[in-house]
Amino acid sequence: MRPVPAASFAIIDGGTAVSAPPPLEGVAAHLGLPLAADGAIALALDEALPAEAYRLEITATGVTLAGGSPQGVFWGVQTLRQLGRELPGGVIEDHPRYAYRGAMLDLARHFFTPAQIKAHVDLLVQFKINHLHLHLTDDQGWRLEIPGWPRLTEVSGGPGTGVDGAGPGFLTLGDYADVVAYAADRFVTIVPEIDMPGHVNAVHVAYPELTADGRPVAPRTDAEVGYSSLVAGREETYTFVETVLKTVAGLTPGPYLHIGGDECLSTPPEDYRTFLERVLPIPGRFGKSVIGWHEIAGVDLPEDAVVQYWRIEATDDAVARAAADGRRVIVSPADRTYLDMKYDADTPLGLDWAGHLSVERAYDWDPAERLPGVGEDAILGVEAPLWSETLRSVDDLRYLTFPRLPAVAEVAWSPRDGRDWQSFRERLAAFGPRWTAGGISFHRSPEIDWH
Ligand code: IFG
User: Fold this and answer.
1) Residues 54 and 133 in one domain
2) What is the rounded distance in angstroms from the CA atom of residue 352 to the CA atom of residue 428?
3) Is the pTM for the entire model greater than 0.85?
4) What is residue 406's three-state secondary structure?
5) 263 part of the active site
6) What total of structural domains would you count in the chain?
7) What's the confidence (pLDDT) of residue 1?
8) One Pfam family of this protein, by short name (predicted)?
9) Cβ count near 46 (within 10 Å)
């Protein structure tokens, strides 16, 4: 044991063991240290704590980490891992501000493989993100196998699909189950999105019979939006939608099904209403709560519906009304959370329709102050979407994600008065060497004095 200040504790590489009761052995495995009954790091459950809360006590002789549930202990493990090998003495008591702390990955514009998605989960949990929203379908590609509708993936998940024709691929039922299980083992809930009634050119390419005139539709590999729509007046539309949502619900242990609803510029308003009134209740029939982008707030919503706010406007009356009616809101304002926004004018990747998103702007805002009428009690949580129109590799994905995802993750986890940009930027600096050592591409933002 190296000589250390009295109150701190040094983890000896490989020589420090962890003790864990059976329900926590899975969590202990994530520490990468041996299990032993007399381990210097003791994991424990403390039912008196809220599920995701934990209490970390570090003394010169060892560490006690108690959580309200295995998930709470797992979040404590992430803090332990962040502290490194020299653990400062003291007690940390911590719990999340919001229950829903999400990241979104757009697999439709550019597909990423199960292995790449799982590697992304490993990085997200280090910042206590507990939901991964997978945008599975859009104009350019359909990325989840649906039994009975094979052309969705054979055609619209096949070669040449994706923006610039560079994002081919799809998840088989087995791939999806594998990703769901991997995420669950790390206390991350997968939130699948089937975007409707807009953003459906990939459906029409695969099944022209679902279009208004039944004529063949050309694949699209550009990045335009708002030009496609399911036909609200045809029964075939609902047969298709019901089969797809039933399949996805059956594959998804999590409580949510996201049905999109955004940018339906080619859906007449009355048709949009008709479509949603028939489709919004379907997830509930399969035991799921429906999530939609905030445009859905214009129609009557199921009691447990969740509205995901994404625009940059200062107010949104429909969302405020939905919140006043008891619907919950996921706050994802593009000008604060869209990781596909450029960092600055020199950023080679990304878009800039919501402005440039610096690390500080991703950090220095408050979800409860973002939308008038959408206060703390209406907010389910925060999510950072990453749209993939300009992504071509995992390095690209990570370059836009890090270091802004940690900023949004802290907005979602920490109490509002506990947040401080100077403190955050100093703590973030320690990740530079770790990401470099791990081969994790990230933006060395000049806002941070990287170690
Ligand atoms: N808006 C579209 C996305 C994507 C995005 C890129 C939403 C909900 C612009 N819809 O954001 O499909 O194109 O920043």
Assistant:
1) no
2) 24
3) yes
4) helix
5) yes
6) 2
7) 38
8) Glyco_hydro_20b
9) 16
Q: Are strands 131-135 and 100-106 parallel, antiparallel or unpaired?
A: parallel
Ligand 1 mutation pick, 106, 140, 225, max ligand atoms within 8 A of CB:
225
Ligand 1 pocket, 309 CB below 6 A?
Answer: no
Ligand 1, atom 3: closest residue by C-alpha:
387
Range of the domain at 36: 2-94
Task: List pLDDT tens digits, range 135-190.
Answer: 999 999 999 999 999 999 999 999 999 999 999 999 999 999 999 999 999 999 99
Query: If residue 309 lies in a helix (H) or strand (E), which one and from where to where?
Result: strand 306-309
225 and 326 fall within a common domain: yes
Question: Is the bond preceding residue 197 a cis peptide, omega within 30 degrees?
Answer: yes
Is there a single domain that holds both residue 25 and residue 105? Answer: no
State the distance from the centre of ligand 1 to the C-alpha of 353, rounded, in angstroms: 10
Mean pLDDT to the nearest integer, 259-282: 98
Q: Which of 57, 242, 263, 360 is catalytic?
A: 263
243 phi/psi in degrees, rounded to 5: -60, -45
Q: Over the stretch 372-413, which tens digit does the pLDDT of each residue have?
A: 999 999 999 999 999 999 999 999 999 999 999 999 999 999
CA of 240 to the centre of ligand 1 (A): 24
- Of 94, 125, 148, which closes a domain? 94
Does residue 358 form part of some domain?
yes
Residues 290 and 411 in one domain: yes
The mean of the pLDDT values for the chain is 96
Residue 141 maps to which CATH number? 3.20.20.80
Ligand 1 atom with the smallest distance to the CA of 138 is 12
